Amino acid sequence: MSDKVLMKGNEAIAEAAIIAGCRHYFGYPITPQTEIAAYMAKRMPKIGGCFLQAESEIAAINMVYGVASTGKRVMTSSSSPGISLKGEGLSYLAGADLPSLVINVQRGGPGLGGIQPSQSDYFQATRAGGHGDFKMIVLAPASVQEMAELTVKGFELADKYRMTAMILADGTMGQMMEPVALDALKVNPTVEKPWATVGTKMEREHNIVNSLFLDPAALEQTNFERFERYKTIEETETLYEEYLMDDAEICVAAFGIAARVSKNAIDEARKQGIKVGMIRPITLWPFPTAPFKKAAEHCKAFISVELSMGQMIEDVRLATECKAPVTLCNRVGGMIPSPEQVLASICKAAEQNGGAK
Amino acid sequence: MIVFDKPHALTDAPMHYCPGCTHGIVHRLVAEAIDELGIEGKTIGVAPVGCSVMAYNYFSCDMIEAAHGRAPAVATGVKRADPENHIVFTYQGDGDLASIGMAETVHAAARNENITVIFINNAIYGMTGGQMAPTSLPGQVTQTSPYGRDTNHCGFPIKVCELLSELDGPEYLTRVTVNSVKNIKTAKAAIKKAFQNQIDGKGFSLVEVLSSCPTNWGMTPQKALQWIDEKMIPYYPLGVYKDRSAKEETK
Amino acid sequence: MSTKQFLFSGFGGQGILFAGKFVAYKGLMAGKNVSWLPSYGPEMRGGTASCGVIVGDEAVGSPIVSTPDVLVAMNLPSLDKYESSVAPGGIIFVDSTLVTRPVNRTDVTVYALPATQMASDNGTPTLANMILVGKILEALGEFDEEGVRAALGKVISAKRADMLDVNFNAMKLGANY
């Protein structure tokens, strides 16, 4: 058994990043993720790394852009309002095909909103992190151990596909402590980056990191090529977990903290004889369409449990192709659905779609 | 015998700048400084949005195009990725450096970030076709100040060197121009010093270059160079605004 | 015990989060699954602080403690706020130095210790939290010296090793009350 320590989710992300070889972190204080910056501020100087508190979220993401241009692993972290500010940089990172890891420990919105947990940046993360046609690999941890594992995974995917990977966590995941086995983390060496701007050494033509293409045909071509890469990712990198789905007649869809709450409700519903299971997307993009499509063949109802006004539910509906009703069970603004609320939704779905019990 | 040649640090790509624009001169001065200091192989340039956005095609060193105003933050990342082996410069216009990117400029200076900033002040937004810049002069007619810049309505120009010189951070702040042979020589020396400072680990060095924009000013190139003398220099006096090392040596 | 949910609550500065972390580590070192979730935000600074700890044989689902089996109320606002949420048959521990009213619930077990006074009398005014934790472990039949010392070793940094005995003695004081 590996030695487990209790760590906050935010701290687990920070330490996992260091284990993954990240030596550059730029950030700006915002609750509920500031522990990441504090951890980096303490650790980086001791391991020859660089922690720098930027003057703004905008500056932080552009410092990330600078380090990413040199091919080194780099990250920033923030919470919802700060991620909005980073939107410009996320788009430029995508346009210049630069790898980076960005953490969003979500809080309630819109506007300044609150500081309690939320999942209402799902659309922002999976649809529109910034202007233009682009995607980010979006990873949704549901435990502190996964906060660490997906951080390492995020760096690897970012390098492999030359794009931004985002950890989409929430205030609960960031603040809670759970046992973590850091020595169980496996890190693959970084890939070669011949495109990096590290100086020509007078040995090659100059490298250019750029997202400007004034010729529309050339810009179109870069988009086409980028989306070919996205297609590969959709085919090979989708991650999800199924819970009690073999005989399920009702399927809960939930990620992150919502999945943790839903698990309690599902266990209770099973005790009552309701055949209910859960599909927990781990990658929100690429969304695990296939398991939902398969579930739609035998499930009579789907329930999307979210800390939002209903965002992932659109992907569930698209994936299930309207073969079964999809209802929403939610709380917003920093509130979290209780297991009882989810159980009530499950019971209601069972009644309305007779025979599930 | 070759008596005059293109610096190695410039590529063969034809520049897109308007006739009479001084960007070409400043590009050359930067390239000469890079050549003379023998740093092309370790230099990385950052050119954000503005007329010089395509500078990445003109310099032979590695180049990065950055978002509008963000070059000092990007340069911070590049420099800190490998402080020993990266020589990093930004090449920014007035709208970029003193308007949308003012926060990045001030904070990079305050941190004494060990980078070289080439700041082109031509008192107008060139790339977008001649709008009022943060450095447009009082009364100056532009597309978005068609009746002349009214300081009661939209405030006063920003004097970047004076502003930054109040900070404890920066190493070297100087304002030069390139409207005569004599001034070009001074500008060249300033740019070279700004790179040498970085090599010596001295920190943030900014060279503000008063430049002309004949196209958007609506003048002949020659008249535009005169306008620098007559209008710009009185408002933006040339000279060294900060030179910490020199000051310490004289103490 | 399959799964036990603890809710620690009191003023910021009373060591609420530390007490919870100790109980979580004690569980972890006994091979249990654990989670620890604090309240966070401006309320942490001088206002009420709380943290929910879950210790169980099975993997922890939701880390949110809404129906605690064990409530620790170190001040009156905490008892007012959380008394009604305690699971029937649960246990409430109160610091009777600061909680000036009796517990109203009749379907729970109540332990009232003047922990703040005891801590003060003991010359360790900041350890009322650990006096209460000592009593909790004793009441739950989980006060084994070896396990307690091991868990203390996890929550007290090596630089403050001298505090280990001090904390242990405070816990012992509570356990023996």
Structure description:
Chain A is built from 12 helices and 15 strands. In chain A, strands 3-2-4-5-7-6-13 form a 7-stranded mixed β-sheet, sandwiched between helices. A 5-stranded mixed β-sheet of chain A has the order 10-12-11-14-15, with helices on both faces. Chain A is of the alpha/beta class and 357 residues long. In chain A, strand 4 (74-78), helix 4 (80-95) and strand 5 form a beta-alpha-beta unit. Chain B has one domain (23-250): Thiamin diphosphate (ThDP)-binding fold, Pyr/PP domains (Rossmann fold). Chain B has helices spanning 23-37, 71-81, 94-100, 102-110, 151-154, 160-165, 181-199, 214-217, 221-235, 244-250; strands at residues 43-47, 62-65, 87-93, 116-121, 172-177, 205-210, 239-243. A 7-stranded mixed β-sheet of chain B has the order 2-1-3-4-6-5-7, with helices on both faces. The radius of gyration of chain B is 17 Å and the shape is globular. The termini of chain B are far apart. Chain C has one domain: Pyruvate-ferredoxin oxidoreductase, PFOR, domain III (Pyruvate-ferredoxin Oxidoreductase, domain 3), CATH 3.40.920.10. Chain C has a 6-stranded mixed β-sheet, with helices on both faces. The chains are: A alpha/beta (357), B alpha/beta (251), C alpha/beta (177). Chains in contact: A-B, A-C. Chain A binds chain C through residues 4-6, 31-32, 115-116, 171-172, 175-179, 257, 260-261, 263-264, 267, 336, 338-339, and chain C through 21, 24-25, 28, 33-38, 40-41, 60-64, 66, 154.
Report a brief summary of the structure.
The complex is a heterotrimer of chains A (357), B (251) and C (177). With 357 residues, chain A is α/β, with parallel strands linked by helices.
Largest sheet of chain A: 7 strands, mixed
Q: What is the overall shape of chain B?
A: globular
- The low-confidence runs of chain A, each spanning 5 or more residues with pLDDT under 50, are none
Strand tally of chain B: 7
Determine the number of helices of chain A (DSSP H or I, runs of at least 4 residues).
Answer: 12
Total number of strands of chain A? 15
Main sheet overview of chain B: 7 strands, mixed
Give the total of domains of chain A.
2
| Cα end-to-end separation of chain A | 40 Å
